[in-house]
Structures are given as C-alpha cells and as structure tokens.
Write a structure and sequence with these properties.
With 384 residues, the protein is an alpha/beta fold. 43% of the residues lie in helices and 16% in strands. It binds pyridoxal-5'-phosphate (PLP).
Length: 384
C-alpha cells in the first residue's frame, strides 16, 4: 500500500508541498503570522474589508442572541428558517433574478448545481481556467465534458456546434465560465459568450466569486456591469470573498431553483448554515449594495490602479514559472514583511507558478507603495 509519507516526500521534491500558516490575529491588511510577526497582507480575498467590519460584527452578535447559532438540520428537514428565506429573497431582488438559493459555500454551489442539472447525454463546456469546484462539479455530473482554451471564443463556438449536433432533443448544453478568473485576475468576454450560447440554445453558468461586491452597480457583479444579468441562466457566487463571511449562492429562474432544492446533493444533504449567519449575510448584502460598499469599491479600485494601472480586477498575478522560483520570491517578500502567496500546480498550469497579489479597500496607499517597491527589488513586474 502507498505510504503517505512517501507521497509527501514526492510533493516536497517537486516544490509542491503545501503547509498551513497560522494567523495569530484576525483577518486584515496587517496580520500577525506565526513565525514571521506582523506583515502586510496582500493575499486575502477580503476585497471590501468586510471580514472585520464592526457594523457586521455587531449585527452578527445581535442575530446570534435572537436567532441562535445552530440550524440543527438540513434545509429540507427542519433547518430552513425565516433568515434563510429572507436572505434568498433579498439576494434575488438585488440580482434582479426570479429566485435565489444559498449553500454553505461557493464550492458546494458548484458541486451541487452542475450534477443536479446535467448528466449522461448532456454536454458541459468549460473554460480551461475554471475553478476546481466547477471542474469537480462537472466531473461529478457524468455529462460529456469539453474544455476550451482560456477565453477562446472560436473554440467555444466549435464545441457548441458539436454539442448541438450530438445532444438529443431533451439534452442540455451548459457553458461554464468565471466572470473574473481567480488566478489570472482577467475577465471573460461575457457579451460574446452570451451571444454564442443563445445561438446554440445552450445554458450559461457564470461564477462571479471574484466580481460580486467588486464590479457593477451596487457591487452586483460583472454581469450587471455589462447589463447581462437577465441573459445568464445561472449566476453563482460566494459570500466568502467581498462579503467577508461565508456561504455561496445561485441566482436563477424559479423553476431551476425549485429543481435544485430537489436535486442538488450538496444542498439537500448538508446542514443549513447558522441562522445568525444567514441574517448577518442579509445585513452585509445591504452594506455592499449601499454607500459604504460604493465607498469601499472606490478605495479598492484606487488601490488596484496605484499598484498596476492596467489592473482588470483586484487580483494581480506576477507569473514566474517554476515552483522553486515562485516559492523563493514569496519567501523573499515575506522577509520584507509582505504576505503574497506563491500559487503552484494544480491551482495553475505547470510552468506558470506565480505570485498572486490581491488588494483590499483597507490597504493604505503607503502599504501599496511599499509593496510596489518590494516587487521591483525582486525584479518582478505584473503579467498584465
Ligand atoms: C473561492 C471560489 C469558489 C469557492 O467559494 P467558497 O465560498 O470559498 O467555497 C468558487 N469559485 C471560484 C471562482 C472561487 O474563486
């Protein structure tokens, strides 16, 4: 039988071993790291600084007293509470969709929705750089999978044409992409993708994990920024990034949401999120969509443009190449007091290991400037 220690040694030798790093402080733009002391944090997805927002903390404490912390059961048994329903209504309202369904995480949305909607005889077409949760969901479904090179519309069109010819009259064709790609920080050509999927009568699922709260009016996402919300059949996202809490969502037609309540296994067979969390998410959504959210988005984009005038999002990658070189660059930055993670295979393709800088509205201008200096000292320029 394989020895786990031998597997770990193989990972180590390939520069692919991962270790947990413990924070001795709450999340934030300055954190205390075990072994490294206080550092500037450029690695979290807390884009709006909501993970430590006192208004949200106070709301959480109050909801905890009022609603309790344990849901006690899955949503379909006896765990579906008014707080869950209100959050879903509020979200559908904000996203101008007919209905919404919330899950315990964004990962659970992807691994629940794809197998619930597609199976044998159906075709799922994914962008090559789609998040692991989308790939796992697609694999779990048993549908035929087709991958197109990142943002390659010609290949997408060819896959769609092939899928239209091969699927039966009841067959589903589902195109899956992200709006902002998590490791490259670039955006998908959603307008063109909508046009192509309409021509083939395919469905489209867009994962807005890194765009929700950051792009569009009221932070509704990139689809909203482009006026495409009503043309995207399935809009998913997470509450774990810009919203600073945790959980995932799907916005879609009432029929799709009702079908998911019946079929999405990660929804059905998992205990409902804490009711106090669901209620707090409602407050965080309201903040995100209001003046505080606008203010933070303004600050976030100023920080992004300060670090990289060509920034497409709050994710700014510096592609390095080998695992060892990326790890050395991250280590060198850590010595200078900056936490920027080295991202390696299988999170990114082999040979494209990189530093991934993420910005937050809470970064101070001189922190951004100091990072810029540190990056130039190790001779790194962004991949943009
Ligand atoms: C983070 C992420 C997820 C998972 O969301 P969680 O709420 O953290 O489980 C899904 N898709 C993409 C693109 C992500 O970046």
């Amino acid at each position: 039988m394989r020895d786990p220690l031998a597997e770990l040694a193989e990972l180590e030798a390939a520069g692919l071993r991962r270790q947990l790093r413990t924070l001795d402080s709450p999340q934030g733009v300055r954190i205390s790291l075990a072994g490294s002391g206080t550092v500037h944090n450029f690695s979290s997805n807390d884009y709006l600084g909501f993970a430590t927002e006192p208004i949200i903390a106070a709301a959480f404490a109050e909801h905890l007293q009022r609603l309790g912390h344990g849901a006690g059961a899955s949503r379909l048994v006896c765990g579906s509470m008014a707080a869950h329903r209100q959050l879903e209504e509020q979200l559908a309202d904000l996203k101008r969709s007919e209905a919404a369904l919330t899950f315990s995480s964004g990962f659970a949305v992807a691994t629940g929705v794809l197998p619930a909607l597609c199976g044998k005889g159906d075709v799922i077409i994914l962008d090559k750089l789609c998040h692991a949760s989308l790939i796992d969901g697609a694999r779990l479904s048993g549908a035929t999978l087709r991958i197109f090179p990142h943002n390659d519309l010609d290949r997408l069109e060819r896959h769609l044409r092939w899928a239209s010819e091969t699927t039966g009259p009841d067959g589903r064709i589902l195109v899956v992409t992200e709006s902002v790609f998590s490791m490259d920080g670039d955006t998908a050509p959603l307008m063109e993708i909508c046009r192509l999927k309409d021509e083939s009568e395919a469905l489209l699922l867009v994962d807005e994990a890194h765009a929700f709260g950051v792009f569009g009016p009221a932070g509704r996402g990139l689809a909203a920024a482009l006026g495409l919300e009503s043309r995207i059949d399935l809009q998913m996202g997470t509450f774990s990034k810009a919203l600073g809490l945790s959980g995932g969502y799907l916005c879609a037609s009432r029929a799709f949401v009702d079908l998911l309540i019946n079929r999405a296994r990660s929804f059905i067979y998992s205990t409902a999120p804490a009711p106090a969390l669901a209620a707090t998410l409602g407050d965080a959504l309201q903040l995100m969509a209001g003046p505080l959210g606008d203010d933070r988005r303004g600050q976030l984009w100023r920080n992004c443009r300060q670090l990289e005038p060509k920034a497409n999002s709050a994710i700014i990658p510096h592609i390095i190449g080998t695992n060892e070189a990326a790890l050395a660059a991250a280590e060198s930055l850590l010595h200078k007091g900056f936490l920027v993670p080295a991202i390696r295979y299988p999170t990114v393709p082999r040979g494209s290991a990189r530093l991934r800088v993420t910005l937050s509205a809470k970064h101070e201008s001189d922190q951004v400037q100091a990072l810029q200096r540190a990056l130039s000292e190790i001779a790194l320029t962004s991949a943009l």
